[in-house]
Amino acid sequence: METLDLARLQFALTAGAHFLFVALTLGLATVVAVLQTRATLSPTPARTRMTRFWGQLYVTNYAMGIVTGLVMEFQFGLSWSGLTHFAGNVFGASLAMETLVAFFIESTFLGLWIFGWDRLNRWAHLAAIWVVTLTAYASAYWILVSNGFLQNPVGYEVVGDSLRLTDVWAVLSNPNTIMAFWHVLTGALVTAGFFLAGVSAYHLLRRTRDTEFFTGSLRIGVFTGAPALLASAMTGGIQLGELATTQPMKPKLLGGDAAKLAQVNAQLVERFGPGDYLPPADWARAGGLVMLITFALLFNLGWFSVLMAFSKRVVQRFRLWHLALVLAIPLPFLAMIAGWVYREVGRQPWVVYGLLRTSDAVSPVSAGQMRASLIAFTVLFGLLIAVNTALLARQAKRGPDAVALGRPAAEYRPAPLPAATY
To answer: Domain-by-domain residue ranges, the chain?
Structure first.
């Protein structure tokens, strides 16, 4: 494989893997913040217990996601120096803001929240998790400001062989950014909702003793995920309408009509000059179709689950439904990744749409060097995903009694030291 193909594959694997963590983190942060708000306004041991259990799963996923985010920061300089040279003056500031928000503000307040149980008063502790949640939203927004500019460049001028920012507001209010932000946020709520429902269904399927706990959690997951599916469909539909103007090739990919694709390519030739502006159609179409099919499965299961969740007896005893919810846990992740593939592959051959081709953005490194870094990143990210999955599964299976987060010091009973022998 050539350097360009290896660089594209490397970025796809690392960005896609990181996105898996982000999807669950964004959604769980919101759910945990709402759970703690309810527990703070109307305190009960059951509500506090629920906040701690889902909060510990959130913290685990967040910690592993931070590691993948750090690696992503190196991607632009290592593999895409042509992009940073050409457009870094425009989208580099938003990447810096994301780093500032995620690694300083969000992480600081998350630390206060993790270690502030029984140390901060309940209102300060509640404020900490809401700051964490809102800065997570801000972090996602800043990333999408950068990505939105690559998809639909606005607010710039060309100066020599690079771009210069001329209109900050145009970049910040880019329609491609705003709609993508709401689409990602609603997709994250779908992911978290089905995660809650699936984990709860697993315990109800096993007839664990925390029946009331997981009955309530399953209902929260269902009543979060199903409405979020509707919102996700709305924001996705608006994006498709916007693409008809900004990236006319992309909507045509789903239909697979060769004549229509050729017609759009001819229009792009008139706009950008001679060339082939067809993206890897099979990959883009596959991503779009998998996203739509997975959404359809989730939509039907989600709203069926809403109907079932009104009956407490059904929630606790419908074992086939429980199994379906457990098996559905990976589906939102699949839908999110498939949608990301459609969004990114459908932009090709441009890295900055209409301005810079992907082939001109790759760093001047050898195929051997790129292959070595691809192997290293793939192994690292594979291990992180495996470890994160194992940790989440183990903590979820243990249930709320095994949670360490927020446990009062009085509950700790360290084992006595063995007697000294001489």
So the answer is: 3-407
